[in-house]
Fold each of these.
Amino acid sequence: MRVVPDNLSDEEFDVWLAKRGPFDNWKDADIRDQAAPLWLIGDNDRPLMLQNALVQVVGKEKSAKTFFTLEMAFCIAFGLKFHGLDVTQGQVVYILAEGGIRRNYTRVQALWSKHEAELQEMGYTSLEDARTKTGSFILLDQTIALAASSKEDPFSPKAFLEAMGDQGIKSPLLVVLDTWARSLWQSGGHESDPLTVGPSIQQADYIRKKLGGTSFAIVAHEGLAKNGRAKGLVDLGGAVDCGIFCKETATNSGVFEFTAMTQRHAEGGYKITAELRKPLDGPSVVLVSAGSMSAAAKIAGLPKSARAWYDALASLGKPVVTVAEWLAAGKARGLVTGKEGQPPSDKAVRTAMERARKGLVAMSAISVDGDGTVTLTPDAMEEPEEAGAFDVVDADGETDED
């Protein structure tokens, strides 16, 4: 498949196509000029998602497909490691055509919570701030009628590309269609309709080329054969460059496996195992794997009292503070209460702080220097043995959708 140069206008695209006939022989020099395949997520040893590829994420209902795919998109958009894997950073368009944009947005907010420490280090103060400043994470709730019978259809690929151009979205690295079924329905067909499936695959490739070689990820339900392929015709499975199969390890376990079963240009079989956990104050669950647990997730997993003292320390806005400043912050937040409505004694406050300090030092969340100063060290934290502020959520909890 040819790699289209980035940022071509319609006129430039037509000129580029005219330079080669559809059946022209590829000369060795022309092939050498093509960029080598790169990974959006992973590498040759841990291949997950290829650049400029047609990608399928498939699994039965409640297999955490959307949780997984949404985090892939989130990490690409903001340049964050994805469950320990390197990513190529770039603009992402995510089409959430099921479940409603408001409800799905809580999942994005939960991803902000999971990766908050890293994002704040990048200078972003909130999810809205990160999305506004980067323009890298575009959310839509209208699917594309990939097999639209008319180019004048307001939901056709042509209309989608025009809307992207109007908004300055020229060459995203990834477009996610969640779900494949919704797009086929929008076109008046279904997963077993050859007059819809084939043209939809062709139009997905057309969109990829027009956007300069973007990857196009399709979220699909598993077929009745339960062989890791999407529901309906096998055409989709045969066309994809990367296929990721999602499944729960055991009924209502809340633990999921995500396996790169299909890799056209690498060895398949790379697997990520992750558990759905929900911060006590978070709006939704997130997938947490041991290799990817961010500093924010680890902090959220602290025991409640230690987390409160950690938050008091962080609220001072300085990486290094004195013990006196930390004590004052804890007292101001009312972390220790006195008897019969009276203010707590200084001794009681210090005792509570010392108890929290020992636990935080043991987990490497902070370090205490000989001069009595305290330093935040969340990146060095070990994963807490118990979830603490994370609840394990089974598949019937908050995962009534994918």
Amino acid sequence: MSEAIAEMILPGTYIEVRSEGLIGVGGISTGNIGIVGTANKGPVNQVEILGSYSEALDLFGSYDRFVTTGTPTPTPLTLTRALEQVFKGGGSTVYAVRVANGAPGTMQWSIRGAGDPAPELLRLSASSPGSWANTLNVTFAVATGTLTAELGRIKETFIGADLGTLVDDIRAGSRLLSAPNVADADRDKPVRSVAVVDANAGSDGAAATTVEAHAGLDLLATQPVNIVTVAGMDATTVGATLLAHVEATENDGRERLAVVGASSDDPAHITSTDADALSNPRVILVAPGILADDAARTTETVKQVKLPAAYAAALVSGRLATLAVHISLTNKDVAADGLTSEYTRAVQKQLLNNRVLVLQKNLGIRVLKGITTDTGAFRQISVRRIVDYAKAGVRIGCNPYIGRLNNARVRAALKATLDGFLSGMVLDEMLIGYQLDVTATRAQEIQGIALVTMTLQPTFSIDFVKVIMTLQ
């Protein structure tokens, strides 16, 4: 906003509005979750934004039956099961990426015309690769010129005795099928039948490795994500990949926290294998695993299964996303049905001393202490989130000043903008104080540099209360 009077001829009062005084800091996202995993449906290697678990089911399909330990186990699909825990924990905005090992197979159907043998006119494909479409039944009724696609209780009907009309109808309204464009010369050809090209051709690429996880995380690197996790993969498998991701995004000014599950419930294994390898203020290591109902167990009396800590990490991610940045995760309840292991106080203390976020049974399931794997003084998750929030706000506040005059007036306006933002953090009890200065030497003015120097004093949470009693 700027108003300037170029020519003053008539007597009166003239006002020049300089917009620097009107610049403020806009909204800052704090609870966006990024997640990578395998699924039997949906686009591969593409970021999808979800707002509910029903959207996740619709886009990525249901998860498969979770097989208990000791039984021959196919590689499980992880994304939808982890998303169930994310939304159960309270997550509301999720950036999800389906990954796959290799190129997952896609079901296809051949549209055939009149003749003996009937010529193939065109091939339809399932709307996305994966095993979900192996039960998709596609038929064609010549008498009515109707193609029908049925999957469970979902039924789609398309009418068109000629190829062009039929394909146009499918392309305009199908959620189950996709069809290529039809050449003008083929549009009037009559359709007589539809046949499956290869039964059970849909495959999922479920055996994803850290290579695929790394590729999925790269797709999330430019997204406004605050918390990131990899579905179904534990600290031993994907810890180094997550560590590299959070360090790279921090260097790019897109700070986030990574939440990962321990590779075992065994305290000695967690301490020696997981905690030592993941010492970082941006990594949260969760233990133990959780109990949860398995929606795929439709015919069994016992539906509850033991999920490894990787799914506890998804649950904790959802719970963390519900909290303001200065609110500690310590002693907060999480929506787990139970824990796969219940640690004694001595074991809990051992794990806490090794920077593990421990879940405990205490009036429900609660986080014992909200800490990262950092070995330094600032282990509290809330402190890291407060600092990230301040950095994001300073970037937003500074950005409108880039390209403006580098003089004392504009720098004072920049300082006023940042002062307003940081003062708001003090009022919201994120900070107990701060120091701020905006300066530039003559050499820096020539180079177009304004230097913001900021010292923050974050608010710490109470992790425990010590009580001393004197009885007389």
